[in-house]
Amino acid sequence: MKIFIVGGGIAGLSIAWRLAQAGAEVEVLERGIAGRGATWASAGMIAPGAELGAESSAMAAFAERARAAWPSFAADVEAASGMPVYYKECGCLLVAATAERAATLQAAACPDSGAVWLTREELLHREPLLDASLLGALQIATDAQVDNRALAEALRAAAMKAGARLRERCSVRSVLIDKGRVSGVIADDGVIAGDIVVLSGGAWMGLLEGMDADVVPPVQPVKGQMAACEPPPGTVLPQSLIWSESIYLVPRHNRLFIGATVENAGFDTSVTHEARDWLLDAAARVIPSLRSWRVAELWAGLRPRTPDHAPVLGTTSIDGLLVAGGQFRNGILFAPVVGETISRAILQNSMSPDLSAFDPKRFAKSA
Ligand SMILES: Cc1cc2nc3c(=O)[nH]c(=O)nc-3n(C[C@H](O)[C@H](O)[C@H](O)COP(=O)(O)OP(=O)(O)OC[C@H]3O[C@@H](n4cnc5c(N)ncnc54)[C@H](O)[C@@H]3O)c2cc1C
């Protein structure tokens, strides 16, 4: 059985790795360089606490399962690849600049699940760079981060070592379907025959030619621009992820990442002066000294978003065609369970009923 994964981002690489580990014949077809899509542009937070709070949706349960899987996933990727991914359980601080936000965050405190309110004094003692006028913060101990760029490299190496193949600069134009069943893909350089195809093309998944809208779920690009700043020598960066009402800050290596805009701008990935100024202004309201830091990098990426903002995972109405997409703001967080879910769907023909909210067929007109 020959399996093709169309798109070598974190989703495609995680799936390929798991399939190859199980002895499957799998090849990733990537039109550019693997790991250079949204996976590269991401902030690398593994932060269901900050992203989803105390929600009790199917997505929150999935996110929690993913977060719990992260420590062993990170250790396994490092062991299999021999490369570091810098997974760190650094926690997250949701800071309050207004009395209204402070009240909301205080009400969300739940020490039993690791969400603790810190007073202004406690906050500044822990993070001395923060603005002294902040009123306090909700600390979520369980949120974490990973170096998403290092992770993509490591996953790629782990997948290759396990026997997966990777064809880069191979753009898939369409999926070959014969009598309601997948029989391969049509790439720029011709037809490649195969038995199973997984679409994991991120924000570009809907661009395949000739695919019925009822088969490939609607996934739209949502642009996010980010900046990375470097402090003067001797400055100690914050320890935790920090979220204000408008932006988040991610300390990693010797940089502070600032993210992110949320824009409907089609497939445009240019960076703009407006976004740079907005990010830096909002960040300086949290860390005033940041105004004099060096701006080391600006970039943009495209989050893959479905109409209900939940992922699409599993089989489609075409035999042998599966989808792994629509992870929107949480594709790094979700990676351990996406790899496991799709490889199990292929190898054991089984999907947990808990994942029915992510059924790719839910957007079909007949659904
Ligand atoms: C600014 C920003 C910040 C983010 N921060 C976080 C965060 O902190 N935590 C988190 O969990 N998530 C975050 N995300 C979201 C996360 O990055 C994405 O959900 C995730 O990377 C999606 O992974 P993917 O593999 O589906 O897509 P991608 O990484 O975009 O990979 C898709 C790949 O498919 C390839 N491809 C597409 N079409 C074809 C084709 N026809 N043929 C061959 N190859 C094809 C592309 O070239 C690309 O390499 C962020 C995203 C952005 C943009």
Give the SSE map:
Blueprint: E1 2-6, H1 10-21, E2 25-29, H2 38-41, E3 45-46, H3 48-52, H4 58-81, E4 92-96, H5 99-108, E5 115-119, H6 120-126, E6 136-140, E7 144-145, H7 148-161, E8 165-167, E9 172-178, E10 181-187, E11 190-193, E12 196-199, E13 220-230, E14 241-243, E15 248-252, E16 255-259, H8 273-284, E17 294-305, E18 312-315, E19 321-325, H9 331-347
Parallel strand pairs: 1-2, 1-12, 2-8, 4-14, 12-19
Antiparallel strand pairs: 3-7, 4-6, 5-6, 9-10, 10-11, 13-16, 13-17, 14-15, 15-16, 18-19
Which terms summarize this structure?
alpha/beta, 9 helices, single chain, 2 domains, binds flavin-adenine dinucleotide, FAD/NAD(P)-binding domain, D-Amino Acid Oxidase, Chain A, domain 2
- Bulk shape: elongated
Instruction: Write the H/E string, N to C.
Output: EHEHEHHEHEHEEHEEEEEEEEEHEEEH
Proportion of beta-strand residues? 25-35%
CATH superfamily of the largest domain, by name, is: FAD/NAD(P)-binding domain
| Ends distance | 30 Å
* Main sheet record: 8 strands, mixed
By DSSP (H or I, 4+ residues per run), the number of helices equals: 9
Low-confidence stretches: none
Count of all domains: 2
CATH topology name of the largest domain, in short, is FAD/NAD(P)-binding domain
Number of strands: 19
**Distinct ligands, ions and cofactors found in the model:** flavin-adenine dinucleotide
Widest β-sheet, arrangement of strands: 5-6-4-14-15-16-13-17
Give the fraction of residues assigned to helices: 25-40%
Q: Measured on Cα atoms, how large is the radius of gyration? A: 21 Å
